[in-house]
Write a structure and sequence with these properties.
The complex is a heterodimer of chains A (about 200) and B (about 210). By secondary structure, chain A is mostly helical. Helix content of chain A is about 75%, strand content about 0%. The longest helix of chain A has 30 residues, at about 40-70. In chain B, strands 1-2 form a two-stranded antiparallel ribbon. Chain B is globular and about 60 Å long. In chain B, helix 4 packs across helix 5 (about 95-105). Classes of the chains: A mainly alpha (about 200), B mainly alpha (about 210). The interface of A and B includes residues 23, 25, 122 and 185 of A.
């Protein structure tokens, strides 16, 4: 688990590898199995997630600590976070379309999808639950989103190969994808011993 | 789906069980399924919490479906869902602190559980309150059934117990891997293959 007295580098590694959001914590699996058919889509999706997640934590942390806590409205955080994030992603989408058209073409279509990606909301919640400060929250979020990127791109690469493998008929498609994910998760479990977190 | 006869209501109720099972067929809501199934107790708790939210949001969305302009429907649905999620979250914290502790962040995350949103958007925004109620119960039962099954398999093989009671003989060496994260993927992979086998055998459907 992440605690506030870990140093920044360890928070990053722990968020990215040891507690990998997809393979160890099981958050955002719908997109993991949904879009992971080709590496190209996954790179776009992964980039968009990094971008949105960092922005979302950057907004929701101040909302929680400067609005909800002083007004004693902590019980509204679920509703408040999801509405803040949804609004913010819309604004970002418009902003990117205006100012950086190439970037928009690369990841634009994934932005609306990400609003309902649990990973974004989960990162915002976890920063609050772990009682991290603002800087550490941002580092943690960058770590989580990089972990997402690494895992989904690797998974897509493996799936492209598995498509050509002689798989029993009953296991074709999704069942074999889950078993692939299981083996990857096993590999990521090894990082736990490596860093001793 | 506009007919409101008894048989069609029954169909809405039972389809969530096998034919349109939210986890195995629609493949939504996987996060909670995998993360909260390390023991049968946790799995059942998650299943019931989810069913309550599903039921509540389906009924409310269906009853306000004619009042909400379609441009703002998504934020409205999200607000409805998050209200029910907050109710569940605080109820669990107050009456079942241990369960709430072990489910952790996954209770507030029901709000982005795609099944709830998906059913609100695809079903209850277009159907009567009664049909949506049945759909909600069916989806809830289907989800609870599968998640409890996964939880029971993982707990029995990985820990030798069921709902906290020892079921395996004392000499049994548990396969701890099944209660670790990789075990969740493994069990659901095999269940999906089994489900496909059942569908092919009994419903003559080629999956």
């Amino acid at each position: 688990m992440v605690s506030n007295d870990l140093n920044i580098f360890l928070i990053f590694l722990s968020a990215m590898m040891v507690n990998n959001i997809l393979l160890i914590r099981f958050i955002a699996l719908c997109s993991f199995f949904g879009v992971s058919n080709s590496i190209k889509t996954c790179v776009g999706m992964g980039m968009a997630v990094i971008f949105v997640m960092v922005m979302a934590t950057g907004v929701s942390w101040p909302v929680y600590h400067f609005v909800l806590v002083p007004l004693d409205l902590v019980y509204l955080r679920t509703a408040a976070f999801i509405l803040t994030i949804a609004t913010f992603v819309q604004l970002e989408e418009m902003f990117i379309r205006r100012t950086f058209p190439p970037l928009y073409r690369a990841m634009g279509i994934y932005l609306p999808l990400i609003v309902v990606n649990c990973a974004v909301l989960a990162a915002a919640f976890l920063c609050i639950d772990y009682k991290l400060g603002f800087v550490k929250s941002m580092v943690y979020t960058v770590g989580v989103s990089c972990g997402y990127f690494v895992a989904i791109v690797m998974f897509a690469a493996i799936r492209e190969v598995v498509d050509y493998a002689p798989v029993p008929r009953l296991f074709k498609g999704h069942p074999i994808a889950f078993i692939t994910a299981s083996l990857m998760s096993l590999a990521f479990l090894g990082f736990k011993g490596l860093f001793g977190l | 789906m506009t007919e409101t006869g008894f048989s069609s209501l029954l169909k809405e109720l039972t389809k969530g069980f096998l034919k349109e099972n939210p986890i195995l067929v629609i493949m939504l809501g996987l996060c909670a399924t995998l993360a909260c199934s390390t023991s049968a107790t946790d799995a059942l708790g998650m299943g019931l919490a989810f069913s309550f939210v599903m039921l509540g949001s389906n009924v409310v969305v269906a009853s306000i479906r004619k009042l909400v302009p379609s441009q703002v429907r998504i934020p409205v649905f999200i607000t409805v869902i998050s209200t029910f999620v907050t109710i569940v979250d605080y109820t669990l914290k107050a009456y079942f602190p241990a369960l709430s502790q072990s489910l952790g962040v996954f209770v507030p995350l029901i709000v982005v559980n795609c099944i709830v949103m998906g059913r609100a958007e695809a079903f209850s925004s277009k159907n009567t309150v009664m049909a949506s109620l049945m759909d909600g119960i069916g989806m809830g039962v289907g989800f609870t059934f599968i998640i409890t099954l996964i939880g029971a398999i993982r707990e029995a093989i990985g820990n030798g117990s069921l709902f906290g009671h020892q079921v395996m003989p004392a000499l049994y060496q548990p396969f701890v891997i099944l209660i670790l994260p990789p075990g969740a993927f493994l069990v659901i992979g095999f269940l999906m293959a089994l489900h496909r086998k059942v569908m092919i055998t009994f419903y003559k459907e080629d999956g």
